[in-house]
Amino acid sequence: MLTIALDAITTAALLFIISSGLLIVFGVMKIINFAHAAFVTVGAYAALVGARLALPWVLILPLAFATGAACGALTETTIVRRLYRRPLDAILATWGLGTVIGQVITLIFGREVQFVQAPITGTAYFLGIDYSAYRIAMIAAAIIVAVVFTGLLNGTRLGLSTRAVIMNEMLAQGLGVDSARVRLVTFAIGSGLAALSGALITPLSSVDPNMGLPWLISAFMLVMVSGGSLLTLAVSSLVLGGLQVVVSTFVNPILGGLTIAICAAVVLRIRPEGFARA
Amino acid sequence: MPEARQFGQTGAASIDFSAGLRITVLALLVVGSIVLAPLLLDTYTTNILIRAFFVAIAAITVDIVWGYCGTLTFGQSAFFGIGVYALAIIFTEYGFGSWQALLGIATAIIAAATVAALTGWLSFYPGSTPLYASIVSLVVPIVLVQILYSGGTFTGSSSGLVGFESFDLEVENWFRLAGLSLAAVATIALIIMRSDTGRLLKALRDNDERCTYLGVDTSRYRIIVLVLTAIVASLAGFGYAAFGGVAAPENASFTFGTRLIIMVALGGRGTIVGAIVGALGIEVASAYLSGSLPYVWELIIGIALIAVILAFPDGLVGAARQLTRGMRPPGRSTTIMLRPIETAAIGGTESGTAIEVKGVGKHFGSLSVLDGVEFTAKRSELLSLVGPNGAGKTTLIRCLSDGRERSAGFVAIGGHAIERLSPNRVVQFGLGRKFQAASIFEALTVAECLRVARTYRARPSLIATSTMLDLPPAAISVVERSGLSERLGEEARHLSHGLKQALELAMVLSLEPEVLLLDEPTAGLTRAERQAFADILTSLTARDRLCILLVEHDLDFVREISSRIIVLHQGRIALDGSVNEVVNSALVREIYTGQQSTTSEAMP
Amino acid sequence: MTSRAFIASLAFMAATGSALAADPIRIGVPVGLSGANSVVAPSVVQSAELAVEEINAKGGVLGRPLALDVADDGSGAAGAQKAFDALVFQKKVNVLISMETSAARNAGLPIVARGKTPFIYTSFYEGKSCSPYLYVNAWVPEQQVPPIVDYFNKEKKASKYFLIGSDYAFGRGMLAFTKAYIEKTGGKVLGEEYLPMDGSDWTSIISKLKASGADAIITSTAGGAPNVTLTKQLRAAGVSLPYGNLAVDEGTAKSMGADAADIYISASYVTGIDSAANKAFLAAMGKKFGADLKTPNDLSVPEYEGVYAYKAAVEKAGGTDPQKVLAALSEVAVDGPRGTIKMDKQRHAPLTMYLGQVQADGSVKVIQSFSNVDPGAQCPPKS
Questions:
Q1: Which of residues B298, B321, B344 is at a domain's end?
Q2: Alpha-carbon Rg of chain A, whole angstroms?
Q3: Do A245 and C1 make contact, defined as CB atoms within 8 angstroms?
């Protein structure tokens, strides 16, 4: 019983980390970045490179973040910037970008599945049972991500400008906020978060050019259901992620994989704002 | 029968003949090449093309749903997959024979239609967004593939189904069957998309809200389109599996669905031909290149997609059209005849109540935008609604036209209570709404805009483009007075601001409304245009006995034409009386001068 | 291998092939360059290349050089259709020699039959695939499963098994046989769980495993990523039960690092086989590919031997006529790194099987070996 609960919480933590980057981008720019999966993969490969260079994990994680942020900044200036008025086209263009990134990674690193050693191995004795220590560490990681970014949003000037742009871009511009810069920084941070999450999940799964894809749909649905708030995302991740684990365990892992997508679609139909407060 | 007035260039007779000849020659060429080609091509190329033809049919359905109706759909692959698996499962379970084949076709059609109806119900409802519809279209193939995975030996799970016996045709005949099917689907699609119905679909894509306010049930149209295209895609899948003898989950996956979109995007969306070009091009090139350059080919496709979205949104066919623009005769030489309708005396009592509003309120949480609004208006009244910015005027207009908008109270239009009905139903009670920013169909011509506006009153043809447009006299007079009659063949996006406003007014009048809601119609108009507008409004109330409710900031304009003025202030009616009463009222002066109000420079 | 090296080796082969004047015999190799098998595909191609190079250096087959045509089957049915089509109808190859997923193989067989092309299948698989055009020189469950189960029963005193697999023909077929064999030898199967081929989240299955109280695990996943993710997640969850993996190869095991330690495998090839033929083979591979060498394994070595088998069959048949070659394939014996192999048991081959245990450094220690294990009645003639 406790195992299932821990499975649920750790899965939710993973989903939260992976979706947070997508949420930040969607909240500010109302654009869905379908290259998000590719950025997750970029982060994983950055971690791979870091591991090969025998860097400590304390350095690997920021390296992954920085790589993702750089890719994001480049993407925003070259592609996304021109598509603000065409959100559906932005989905397509970023999908194309995702394909390109995937192929470039394949050309550089090859198609093989690669592996990165986990920084924390084995099990930990947690609340009375033996559970994967790394998965438990994911919970901590998710909390740190949430705290840092909520802090950024609420405690810094950039955060204030970002919130202003989210609420009313024209008004913010009129008040002197450089909304173009806000968008650029937001996209970069969102992509960096995606890459960071990719680095974090490598010890649990393999590193190959298409690893990000299964997460894309779940992350996408969670973001849609969460409106614009990190807190709602955390709640959605817990609820839907938990549901996914329960269905996987008691019914069928295949149907479990569908739970998030189906539940999110139904929720959005009934209540277009999702779980967000009106 | 009133005389029809003719507008637009003539010379129709000679053009029709040569167009007919051109089409016949083209058809003969296409059919001929399809019949003869297999004799000239080698087996391998023939195989590839057969598969490509079926995929191209699916791509056409994607173009219809996305290019024409505006829904970015990743899900047509699911319907293709349904056809594939319908055939494979039935032939595996029951063997091959004529009743099995019929059962297979029936299953493919019914299953696809059911799933499409469900998907449509989920995606298209009043208030849904294109983004949500895309999301649903993304989820459908994913769910389907997972269902296939969990089907054990019944669906073949990850391996798919192979080895079932299928139709025994020569490869050459498969080619002819597939090729002619593609030609048939393409022809039908082109005919429908060029007809008035096709224009309506484009209008849905361009401006869904305007369509709703023209009385069109946009959700129903979208669902019908989805169901019909799903059936076609499913049959294409059926053919694909019948030829290939393999059913694999990849045939239904969202990756394949994305591939279809890429084909349409690269070929040119909204052209049908573009879908065919894209599909055939990518399928054939994939077959030849992916063996030797598997990674580079995918890279090329990704880059091409980005390039097309950013720089060439109209794809290959669009670019080709741009290049050949100089070679084709300019403009569209069509003859459009406008014919005034003999509008019968509008039923109802002489002095019927056109608008009835009782206790209407609108709240956002604790913020109250409208409170206790109450008034009635009769036919032939020209009622102006004034008040400072933020008083709630546009909100009131919304509450009158959309039954779901108000938080409290009662609204009736033309004697019918609007309850919680959506705008397209309210319009059917006789309401017409003109928006602040001219809400028209930028990509359609003036004549086409008017044709679409008549959809609710006169069902559009599925195959023809009308050359005769029946409009109410009020609409025709607006068209003539504004000078639009000289520009019926021009695309609406090229009109000046004033002409766009006039076009929108003509479109709304085409509904033959009894009640007209106008939101700041004179904003941005020149003096002459404003005067013309005033004349039109006055004649509408006098001659056609419309009830007009006008939101305006230009108090001179208001004073000149209104029979009655309602002043709205902070969500409540401050004053409701004749022009003189209101203009001379001290309360009104206080309201206006005590605020930072802008008058005639009011911008939307 | 990188794309550049791949293209370079293709060019090299084309050059070698064209150096001999006569019309080449074309060997088609449909293999999973992308998808689940992309991990092992490079090693398979390398084996084929070495065999072709060696044979051409000695004068080819009946005076004609061999040429390779490689096509990507995407590791699945849809891709296999396209690859087989290209090889059989466009390149018009004389024979197909390759390893593939069962999904791909099943999709390719109808095309093989239509094109009347012999197909030497060099992959271990779930058995009972009986096209008259199909010859198999790799193992089937009757050869691979008993060593592991017998060892667990006897040495590890296991009696309660938990089975995990990928949901497709191979995964299900192998585990069905395993379950039957376990029950025949007095054991019990407490659970049998599957994920789709592309699944990577084994969390709930692992939780079920731990809750079941099983004392041994046997897995049969698709090669590549599923193997890796399952092993990693098992180890991360602290599972250290005797673990028999029916579908992992030495190369994958090596790159799994410490997580792979203690996995038991049963294979017809391990690099540690102590024979002159194997040593010569490994030396030649090392010399040809140097640093780019992918560890030869139980999926790639049969490819090497398959090419030689075809050579022998063509020489015996006196030409490439498909019917004659097919008849000859069951009569010729090939000496290779795995010993002497003859596909004479209903188009399948008796093989020497090795039970091995993966060590912490990724190498495989041979615990027991069994000679000449019969494949059983794979394709009994219809009576």
A1: B321
A2: 18
A3: no
